[in-house]
Specification:
single chain, alpha/beta
Length: about 160
């Protein structure tokens, strides 16, 4: 199986806990973290302290987006930055024909949503907007418990 190569735009606590660590641990058989991009260099240190397996992942400042793409050649972008920055990463990723996965909200206004839709129509890439909270570790554990029958049966009325 070929691993899909991901660059993460926005290295927040949420990005680390909900995307980066799972990618490096549970999903390393099918996903490879190839780049980290952020506006704050301290976030790279926090990330690598929290997720030591990310120690050799290249770091890029936000202004180095094009350099990051050229050097790391990701297949997809994970956008976990401040909401107001999503549109720029979405559009730029689509210009590179990348798949772009954005946590909600995809954009903060209608004009930006239309820009993304137009960029996606011109791109080979696609946009996925996630509702990240459903992957919270506590919700994942609850799902496991339901499937294992430890909290009763699910019924449909």
């Amino acid at each position: 199986m070929t691993k899909k190569r991901y660059a993460v735009c926005g290295v927040s606590q949420r990005a680390i806990g909900m995307y980066i660590v799972p990618m490096l641990d549970q999903f390393s058989h099918c996903a490879e973290l190839v780049a980290l991009l952020d506006v704050d260099p301290l976030r790279f240190k926090v990330c690598k302290d929290t997720a030591p397996k990310a120690a050799n992942v290249p770091e890029y400042m936000a202004a180095d987006f094009d350099k990051m793409i050229a050097e790391t050649k990701p297949d997809a972008l994970l956008i976990v930055s401040m909401d107001c920055t999503h549109v720029e990463y979405l559009v730029r990723g689509l210009e590179y024909d990348l798949d772009v996965i954005s946590e909600k909200p995809m954009t903060t206004n209608t004009e930006d949503a239309l820009r993304v839709m137009e960029a996606e129509a011109k791109s080979k890439g696609k946009v996925i907007c996630t509702f990240n909270y459903r992957y919270n570790p506590i919700h994942r554990k609850l799902r496991e418990m339901v499937i294992a029958g430890k909290v009763g049966r699910m019924g449909i009325k």
